[in-house]
Write a structure and sequence with these properties.
By secondary structure, the protein is of the alpha+beta class. The protein contains nine helices and eight strands. Strand 6 and strand 7 form a beta hairpin.
């Protein structure tokens, strides 16, 4: 449910960006749909059909003439509008996701405040994880891990990432007394490293809405830079970037909500940034490929063959479906 909520909002915002700019630039919108497959419910207003379809993993805006569905050309056809209008319309989806990320980050900062971790104190122990089974409790302070003194939460995260699924001996302080427990991290689908199932104790310092928006903008820029760096680094070294499929994203959404509402909103903001960047990749039929087609059109001073573009987009669509299926298997089995 957490996954469907996050993805549903992100899709509505993304497609809503395309929709609003298309209307503002005189491009007709034939359909605004959430989901794919069989249509469950729909209503038509102002020449646009608004629909909810059976499979909620996506959505689309069908622009007039864009998919070759209009029998007769009309002034509001996508291809009939100026190049600048088409560029703005296609770019509006990713831009809307970036703006959503700013708003979500600012929402957390204004509503909860700036988070500060309280040293090496455990805030939450996730149910069903090794730490809970070992008897770790919220409020415990981690004194040492395998004999290594711990004073900050970053040290815990770093140690957790290096040991893999090997047992960790934790020296804890609880109510003035010390005790030792053994925790063996487990690999969770979609997680970058094995986890014990604990989160840091956090205190929040309230800030104004204006400052929250400014920091939200900075957080969004930082998330864009971090994601782009990962993609660029993977491409530079000729290796596949760390990818997560639908199953992995659903698992991460559930984990973030288990930690708290604010963490879930931050997760949605980061997911929104990733969705925007993914859509800007020059892979048919994503927004990035359409922008490439229009860039070529601007250089050539005439559009490419519509039949060629439609064929490339169709092939790309089925390849993306296949890739999504492979990633889903990887999320479940841990193997490609």
């Amino acid at each position: 449910m957490a996954f469907l909520l996050a993805v549903g909002v992100l899709i509505v915002v993304h497609e809503g960006g395309h929709f609003l700019v298309a209307r503002a630039t005189g491009i007709g919108v034939r359909e605004f749909a959430i989901g794919f497959g069989k249509r469950l419910v729909s209503v038509t207003r102002g020449g646009t059909r608004y629909a909810i379809n059976m499979l909620p993993l996506g959505g689309y805006v069908m622009l007039a003439g864009m998919e070759g569905t209009d029998v007769k050309p009309s002034p509001d056809n996508f291809q009939a509008r100026p190049l600048w209008a088409r560029l703005l319309t296609i770019s509006a989806g990713p831009v809307a996701n970036y703006l959503l990320a700013v708003v979500l980050f600012a929402w957390v900062l204004a509503g909860w405040g700036i988070p500060t971790t309280s040293g090496a104190v455990i805030g939450q122990v996730l149910s069903g994880y090794p730490a809970a089974a070992a008897g770790v409790r919220p409020g415990d302070r981690v004194v040492a891990m395998d004999g290594h003194r711990i004073t900050t939460w970053s040290q815990i995260s770093s140690f957790e990432a290096t040991v893999g699924t090997q047992p960790i001996h934790l020296l804890l302080e609880r109510n003035g007394h010390t005790l030792t427990v053994t925790v063996t991290p487990v690999q969770v689908p979609g997680a970058p490293a094995p986890e014990m199932g604990v989160t840091a104790a956090v205190t929040y310092h309230p800030i104004s809405l204006g400052r929250a928006l400014a920091i939200g903008w900075q957080e969004t820029a930082a998330a864009i830079a971090a994601t782009a760096a990962v993609l660029w680094g993977a491409a530079a070294h000729g290796v596949a970037p760390p990818l997560v499929g639908v199953v992995g994203i659903a698992s991460l959404a559930g984990q973030s909500l288990a930690v708290g509402v604010s963490q879930f909103i931050v997760f949605a903001a980061i997911l929104s940034v990733n969705l925007a960047l993914f859509n800007l990749l020059p892979i048919p039929p994503l927004d990035g490929s359409r922008l490439v087609f229009m860039a070529v059109e601007g250089i050539r001073r005439k559009p490419l063959s519509r039949s060629l573009e439609l064929a490339v987009n169709a092939v790309g669509f089925y390849l993306l479906i296949a890739a999504a299926a492979v990633l889903a298997v990887h999320d479940v089995t841990g193997r490609l």
